[in-house]
Amino acid sequence: MPKIFEYLGILIFFYSNEHEPIHVHAKKAEFESKAEFYIVNGEISEIKVSNIKGSKPLRGKDLKDFESFLEKYADKIVEKWINYFVYHKDIEFERITKRL
């Protein structure tokens, strides 16, 4: 489970056996959601946040924080996904403690 970011206590990660579309998971305490990235002509056209079956979804402030994070770091998340799953490179974990 490669952890790629922590933002205000929300852990953002991939599972090691991921599949397309490119997506990340976000977890805080017992709450977990995922964000899928839809790419058209090499550009992110849409980011869709959804629930994980069997888990309580992020909500309230945590969900808003996750959405804000996605807006700012979407390109970097996609880059890390490609580096890890396509190029099999190690990826760096980053902790962000200040609100964006």
Question: How does this model look, in words?
Answer:
With 100 residues, this protein is an alpha+beta fold. The chain has one domain (3-96). 26% of the residues lie in helices and 37% in strands. The chain has one helix and six strands; from the N terminus they run βββββαβ. It has one helix at residues 60-85, and strands at 3-7, 10-13, 23-28, 31-40, 43-51, 94-96. The chain has a six-stranded mixed β-sheet with strand order 5-4-3-2-1-6, with helices on one face. A hairpin with a 2-residue loop joins strand 3 (23-28) and strand 4 (31-40).
Helix content: 25-40%
Would you tell me the structural class of the helices and strands? alpha+beta
Provide the low-confidence segments as ranges: none
Q: Give me the count of strands.
A: 6
Shape: globular
Gyration radius, to the nearest Å? 13 Å
Count of all domains: 1
- Residues in β-strands, percent: 35-45%
Topology of helices and strands:
Layout: E1 3-7, E2 10-13, E3 23-28, E4 31-40, E5 43-51, H1 60-85, E6 94-96
Parallel strand pairs: 1-6
Antiparallel strand pairs: 1-2, 2-3, 3-4, 4-5
Keywords, please?
100 residues; alpha+beta; six-stranded mixed sheet; 1 helix
